[in-house]
Amino acid sequence: MASKKKRSLNSQNDRWVVIAADSAVDAKKTDGSNPVFVRLKNPATDAASLYLFGTGDSQVYEVKAFDENYHSWFIGQTVQRDGRLLYITPMDPLYLLLPYIIKAGKEGNFQPVEQVVMDEDFPACTRLLRCARTRTSLLLVAEEKEVGSQRFYRYSQEKAVEWLKKKAEQTVKALKKSGVSVGGGVKSTTYFRTKQECNVQEEDYLRYAHGLISEYISEDLSKQLQKVLQLPEILSPKDVEPPSKKRKLSDGPVEAGEDYTKFNSASFIRKPPKKMTAAQKSLAKADKSGMKSMSAFFSPKVKTEKN
Description:
By secondary structure, the chain is of the alpha+beta class. It is built from 8 helices and 11 strands. It has helices spanning 93-105, 113-116, 134-137, 157-178, 202-214, 219-228, 237-240, 278-285, and strands spanning 2-6, 15-20, 36-41, 48-53, 60-66, 73-75, 78-80, 85-91, 142-147, 150-155, 251-253.
């Protein structure tokens, strides 16, 4: 469903156009709480990104922005200059909890999860513990010790990597079932190829899935997952890196500013080279030996001294 949300600061005429699942804005409220946007630490970059907690904090949602140049919205009788489209999708809260569990695990002690998931910069992180099945999911990445009525946890790298491996395998199944094109023939700007290739191998699916999951984990975990998936090292990352590892300019995480209106974007967009005309091609092939460059005609003249 699509919804519009006024910005908290700046012009009141500015609005967001949002596409979200019904579960994110479910009208059935059990405790009187409403969906709310919050700042949380991005598990891959450690920077602040924007997320949404659904009604009752039972589910956390990732917020991304789709942006196209020269795009705007007609809202009622007004024109919204900001043509970005926010879309909100469910996210596994364990991805967001994992950095805290790993950090606490470096101390080597079992700790209560309430003591582990604490962050002065991102106080809303404690709401992740209220998401459905979060407590049981901790056993996928941590060891548990029960003392009396209390439970204590310690990070397990072996469990975490195994959990990520299963995530990758599930992603591969979903890719095959959905008929998503993978492999070197996929265009990085659209993730689709014009012709379906028949020689796509299992490695192509695994590498694609690895790229998708790597957007939610640290670089170190990404390398460990690559190793356990037995994916060979990429010799020329810029040339053969799968599209799933390339951040699309039109599909990026939302920067969590105080007014929640800023979006991450690349510092520049590489423009494609212009096609040469027939005349230009002919000139390029011409023999230029003995010719002066255009700048030579505009260079300052050297004054000669008179005897």
